[in-house]
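dumping the sequnces here before i forget
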Amino acid sequence: MGPKAENAADSRIKVSIYTIAFIAALAGLLFGYDTGVISGAILFIKDQFKLTAGAQEGVVSSVLLGAVIGAAFSGGIADRFGRRRSIIVTALLFAVGAIGSALAPNLNMDIAYSQSNFHITIPAVAVIILFRLMIGIAIGVASYVAPLYISEISPADIRGGLVSLNQLMITCGIVVSYLVDYMLSMGQQEWRWMFGFGAIPALILIVGMISLPDSPRWLMSKGLVEQARGVLSRTHRKESVEEAINEINKTLGQKECSWAEVFEPCLRPALFVGIMLAFFQQVTGINTIIYYAPTIFEFAGFASHNVAILATIGVGMVNVLMTVVAIWLLDKVGRKPLLYVGMAGMALSLGMLGVAFFLPTLSGALKWIAVGSVLCYIASFAVSLGPIFWLLIAEIYPLRVRGRAMSLATVANWGFNMIVAATFLTLMEKLGKPGAFWLYGALSVAGIIFTYLFVPETKGKTLEQIEEHLRSGKSLRTLKAQA
Ligand code: BGC
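..and the predicted 3d for all of it:
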């Protein structure tokens, strides 16, 4: 092939891979939108249905609970029925959940059978909770199956950026949800539209995924070598297709995979890394900022709701922009350097935020220091723990147990998310505002030490090289980047 033909082939491959990754990453958009939208919608729902604090918590936390359930029960499904089918079913759940919650009745429903004297009343809000739970289940599955699918489709040298397109879409989904909430916040029953809009990307995802192939690695794990070869020829250069097939073949044993295999001694270090990264991604406080940014800004002295909400949209934008920077850097500098720099930035900005609340003399400047620290914090998260948690868990597990192992790390992520969201306001009350932020800051420092001691560098390695290293029993952290 001449250089011209080679270039044309390279661009064809690039277009093909980016299209596939982009479509799958719509799952991330839904994840971000549906977790973000509730902050605005709840204000209307609580007024319309005269909700108690408990019922409000039910509406807000049903998604998180659903996500834990979804992630917990789907690992085997992704391994058995494939990544693509799992995403399609998930997208259906997203669509039904969005439409169902948007169409929830205005009044409680009475169900009565006069013959048997049976009578029950279903509160209207229970319908919302139920459909939000369904959306949560979809989020739980989508949050890891989309990165899993993209990582198995991608060539090693650009895998970091491609998988992190999913995180980029999460951050875009969050901003879109803030904007939709903001624009609709003037009307009356607008919460219905806020929920209903989620159906649009869900339908695009269904149509898009139906037209895409499954991942070549999953196809090979099911013995579908010809189909896998077809997919690889869309995503790899002609001369490297057979090499990729041989490599994947080497990692496939004969026996059916089971949960027991996930807990084999040689895989335990990888499980530990996945679960601990989930821990650090959540306990360093990201969602206290994502969910409570307006509250923090109001504490800091911004009197008007509007300014607080606008500042929150700014936070969302910085999250998006810095995720783009992460995508650009991940395959150049590697995962670990970004984790170090990002977590150091998070620790410093949390320290500063604590100081701002600690020193009464700063009161005039407090609000600006608070905004500055929150922006630095989100920027640091966006180049590190945000994308890299989802990326690493899509890289470090062996093919035959990848779905199951990722589902465990994902359950941990949503579980820690729930714990932090449920304890943040109490923590502020008990430790004081500075104490709460310093605690998250101290945990960021612990995250840096953890990364140094246990996290592998996966830059440039094929998934099969990573698996070989893990199975050889060598410590994960000794895995070094491919030059
Ligand atoms: C986290 C979410 C968080 C989001 C913010 C994701 O990687 O898992 O909990 O809300 O990033 O960008």
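The pocket of beta-D-glucopyranose is lined by residues 167, 170-171, 281, 286-287, 290, 319, 386, 390, 413, 417 (CB under 6 Å).
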